[in-house]
């Protein structure tokens, strides 16, 4: 059964839709049409608000579906994870949200991915990191008018590389679809996130948002690849929590 929620809207931001991941439910996947995979045009790194759908977007999503996973890290070299077609993701800063690292796939934002840090008294408590993300996201939820649907979570085993002798954690990746329906625009994004007990009293939150742009089936497939294959590749590289935010 699908739960739905709506909240008020004041502004739009690709990444902030990912912050709405604390609500839930699901819709059926449409079979994506056949298209040849192709990376987006070279990104010049300049600010951009997004792009259109069509053949280029579908080809970029197909590239994300099929391309090899390549490690990318943050500027402080505190963590790294494997991104599909990793060399073609460009580092960016997210409007209004301090992050550890952010990436966009192409100047037209065929995908965005990022990492954030939250704090808890004890991150080894089951569910503590996930709850900290949900509490952190609540203020952002009130900025949007959006309908959320949530698919079944994906469980995976993860070991902190800074404590290799400790038993692995069983973590969960949440996958959802966020739809906006304002006078300005009607958009949908396939998104996923996961929370990790990374440093003392600190949690690492990673996530991805893929705009549908009339190719919702393929956007969900890319999202599911992150949930099933990408999130388990997260590695913690620093002993202590990194201090800088961007």
Query: What's the gyration radius in Å?
Result: 17 Å
What are the low-pLDDT stretches, counting only 5+ consecutive residues below 50? 1-15, 19-31
Beta-strand segment tally: 11
What is the helix/strand order? HHEEEEEHEEEEEHE
Q: Estimate the mean pLDDT confidence.
A: 85
Terminal residue distance: 39 Å
Report strand %. Answer: 25-35%
Under CATH, the homologous superfamily reads Mog1/PsbP, alpha/beta/alpha sandwich
CATH architecture grouping: 3-Layer(aba) Sandwich
Largest β sheet strand count, sense and barrel closure: 8 strands, antiparallel
CATH uppermost class: Alpha Beta
Share of helix, binned:
10-25%
Q: What would you say this structure looks like, in words?
A:
The chain has 246 residues and is of the alpha+beta class. The protein has a single domain (14-27, 68-236), classed as Protein Transport Mog1p, Chain A. The chain has four helices and eleven strands; from the N terminus they run ααβββββαβββββαβ. α2 runs parallel beside α4 (216-230).
Main attributes?
19% helix; 31% strand; 11 strands; 3-stranded antiparallel beta sheet; Protein Transport Mog1p, Chain A; disordered N terminus
Short description:
With 246 residues, the protein is of the alpha+beta class. It starts with 13 loop residues before the first helix and ends in a 10-residue tail after the last strand.
